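thought: user wants a sequence for this fold. calling inverse folding tool.
action: design(structure=
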């Protein structure tokens, strides 16, 4: 009822404006003759035109309804909000944004966030880029696995095998997709496209924290402090195992080139 009343008021305003325009129409131009059949004093153009009259505007609401129905709905419009669509339909309309990135999955990274870094300060730019991405993920409260290639040469070879090139850290992988290095990840974050790629925030229960990080509060392992490596217990980091009979030593086969082993809690 209120809508029809508003429509009727608009029609009455249109009628009054049409009548006022006809009464106050300017005189015809002396250099341009009036068209044949024109009305008004001095041969000017009649207003309203013969095809449009003030009486043609009806107070009936069907005048608006007829014009509103002429505009068909957009072909791509959905009758239901996206959040109310079934899971399959929602995935079809809104595909996973990770599909835009190449499928390169590091070992154990099918459902995890893996960040390859280095803690060596040999190249300052590389070291700073690793710190920036590490701090970014921590600020976003994302559970991620950090793999320091400077702690284990095997991790460096692992990164090279996954990317197919001698990639330089940092390098971020999300659920088996290669998101890129520091420049690519920071650009995604500035555009607001990084957060939708990442899994939910860090779990809050103690049990989930241990499962995700191998540690307690703050996500730091109590054994390795988040480094994921500890000194080898067989050789104490010397990389040699001595036998009392011969007086010599042999290469320890339980640790890497730095005398370190993976943290047993983080495993």
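)
observation: tool returned 267 residues.
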């Amino acid at each position: 009822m209120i809508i029809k009343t508003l429509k009727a008021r608009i029609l009455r305003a249109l009628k009054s404006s049409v009548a006022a325009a006809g009464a106050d129409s300017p005189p015809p131009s002396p250099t341009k003759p009036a068209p044949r059949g024109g009305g008004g004093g001095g041969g000017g153009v009649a207003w309203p035109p013969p095809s449009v009259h003030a009486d043609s505007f009806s107070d009936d609401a069907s005048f608006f309804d007829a014009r509103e129905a002429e505009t068909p709905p957009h072909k791509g419009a959905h009758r239901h909000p996206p959040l109310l669509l079934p899971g399959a339909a929602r995935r079809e309309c809104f595909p996973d944004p990770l599909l835009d990135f190449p499928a390169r999955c590091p070992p154990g990274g099918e459902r995890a966030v893996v960040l390859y870094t280095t803690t060596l300060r040999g190249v300052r730019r590389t070291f700073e880029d690793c710190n920036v991405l590490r701090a970014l993920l921590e600020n976003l409260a994302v559970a991620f696995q950090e793999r320091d290639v400077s702690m284990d040469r095997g991790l460096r070879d692992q990164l090279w095998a996954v990317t197919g090139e001698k990639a330089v850290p940092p390098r971020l992988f999300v659920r088996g997709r290669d998101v890129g290095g520091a420049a690519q990840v920071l650009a995604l974050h500035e555009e607001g496209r990084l957060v939708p790629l990442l899994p939910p925030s860090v779990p809050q229960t103690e049990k989930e924290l241990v499962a995700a990080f191998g540690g307690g509060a703050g996500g730091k392992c109590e054994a390795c402090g988040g480094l994921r490596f500890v000194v080898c217990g067989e050789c104490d980091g010397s990389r040699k195992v001595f036998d009392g009979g011969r007086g010599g030593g042999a290469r320890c086969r339980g640790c890497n080139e730095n005398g370190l082993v993976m943290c047993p809690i983080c495993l």
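thought: summarizing for user.
answer: Here is the designed sequence. Helices lie at 2-23, 62-68, 87-93, 124-139, 153-163, 182-190, 206-213.
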